[in-house]
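Changelog note: in this version the structure field was regenerated for every chain. One regenerated record is shown below for reference.
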Amino acid sequence: MVSSNVSPGDTLLASQFNNLRTDVINTSTGHDHDGSDSKLISADDLLGRVIIKKDSDELVDNSTTLQNDDDFSFAIAANEVWVGRLFLKMEDEGGGDTPGVKLSWSLPSGGAHFSIGSFYDDSTNALGEIQGGTGDFMAFGINFADNDFVIVDFSIVNGANAGTVQFQWAQGTASTNGTIIAADSFMIAHREA
């Protein structure tokens, strides 16, 4: 009898993970496994990792005010250190406009970040660097009308307060041509300490 009762796409709780692990180790349940622990991923290996994929487009229109991204956030405990990468597929709703994009993080009080990145403009085949740093960071001069990509590498060093790491963004220059972070953009992050 399989005791894990987990379906693809489910959020995996620690108790469910332990049951699933037991099912995989127990060769009498019909799983193709020799029972050795060396081929398993431990619960400790799964903790401290975040992978988030954006399922639908998100639009910011005529605004340079940072807003919370609908998808890219994760919980952080006191004094943790996280590193990660954002891969953002960018589009411009109207085309022909280059508002750029302003990026930042909202962190628990006492938390700090360093972020740096690059972008690829498909219309000009141009590569560029994003002004990195510890505050807001910018990517200007990109015509997001095409399949453009912004890649941001980041580190988060939290202080004594637990909370949420929240990615924020806005247009670099206000424009009625909306700026879009498109579906299938993703974030990968893992805890270092």
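Spot check on this record: The chain has two domains: 14-46, 49-191. The longest helix spans residues 14-25.
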